[in-house]
Design a protein that fits this description.
single chain, alpha/beta, Glutaredoxin, 2 domains, six-stranded mixed sheet, two-stranded parallel sheet, 10 helices, 12 strands, globular
């Protein structure tokens, strides 16, 4: 009986220890705090997050990649004959009307962004500072690409970042009016007459915007101001008017061949994921090796196809005549 009693007591002790361990683990799991921040991060849409230091494109040269960055910083470039800001009427996150018709006489900066885009979040304090500095002379409008995020969540994010300018949620129609927004952040600079004079894709220093705003307001700037024709640098649709593309060598083609090559590059889509034509990709991202290679292939195909010699007398061998 003593041995049986000892054996039963040992079993009870082991069971008691197991029960205590289970209760402790269960209690610690119940009391563990939820990571609400991680749970609230939305899945990114199929947008491309632009490089933090994008290339500056010189529309008057196909060798813009070789330009010294300091030389580019000393020049302010605006479109010579700017197209008007696409008109829109929308309500911001606070329910207030945002209308382009009420913006005449102000410099306007339209900023496409998203809460899930790191460069977008990084540039917000600079935009807030600009709006504070220039007050009624400048109007920044944020267009949020957070289509899958509740407006309330975007509003709370904006309040947390102390955003002092209106934010509207993007629509397909609005994005189409701006010619498509393949990368974030993307900002359009608009002069006081309502013309879109510059576009910036990617994260730029606040000084870049500050110089442009001062120039558009007629304030003194030390930088040289140059103008250029929009060949797709601002609105992608204008790429079809370009006669040269960055990084594409047309020197081996005659005028007719070059026209055929440009036509192909304005219809064929780049496979890098940008969702742009080859011409648009070359203009907006001259560092893209995919569009560079595809464009070179088109040039080579057209050059070899058209270069086949034709005998001076009679049709080529195997051809039929009427």
């Amino acid at each position: 009986m003593n041995r049986l009693g000892i054996f039963l007591a040992a079993i009870c002790g082991v069971l008691a220890l197991l029960a205590a361990a289970f209760a402790g683990a269960h209690g610690s799991h119940k009391n563990a705090p939820l990571n609400l921040t991680a749970a609230a991060v939305p899945l990114p849409t199929p947008k491309i997050i632009a490089a933090s230091k994008p290339t500056t494109h010189d529309p008057d040269s196909t060798n813009s990649d070789s330009k010294d960055a300091d030389d580019d910083d000393a020049v302010i470039r605006f479109v010579k004959n700017p197209e008007p800001l696409p008109p829109f009427l929308a309500r911001d996150l606070d329910g207030q009307i945002v209308s382009t018709a009420a913006l005449k006489g102000k410099v306007v900066l339209v900023n496409f962004w998203a809460t899930w885009c790191p460069p977008c979040r990084e540039e917000i304090p600079e935009l807030v500072k600009l709006q504070t500095t220039y007050k009624d002379q400048l109007q920044i409008i944020g267009i949020s690409e957070d289509e899958d995020v509740a407006p309330e969540a975007v509003r709370e994010f904006a309040r947390g970042m102390h955003v002092n300018y209106p934010i509207v949620i993007v629509s397909r129609e609005l994005e189409k009016e701006f010619g498509g927004i393949p990368a974030l952040p993307t900002s359009f600079m608009v002069n006081k007459e309502g013309g879109v004079v510059q576009k910036h894709v990617g994260l730029f220093p606040g000084e870049v915007y500050d110089r442009e705003i001062r120039a558009l307001l007629g304030m003194q700037v030390s930088e040289k101001i140059e103008t250029f024709e929009d060949m797709g640098q601002i609105f992608l649709k204008n790429a079809e008017h370009a006669t040269d593309l960055p990084g594409v060598d047309f020197s081996g083609l005659n005028a007719e061949q070059k026209q055929a090559a440009l036509k192909r590059m304005n219809t064929d889509t780049c496979t890098c994921g940008c969702r742009m034509t080859l011409a648009q990709c070359r203009i907006n991202d001259s560092a893209c090796e995919t569009s560079r290679g595809l464009a070179a292939k088109i040039v080579k195909q057209i050059a070899s196809k058209e270069a086949k010699p034709v005998p001076p007398t009679g049709p080529p061998s195997g051809a039929t005549t009427e």
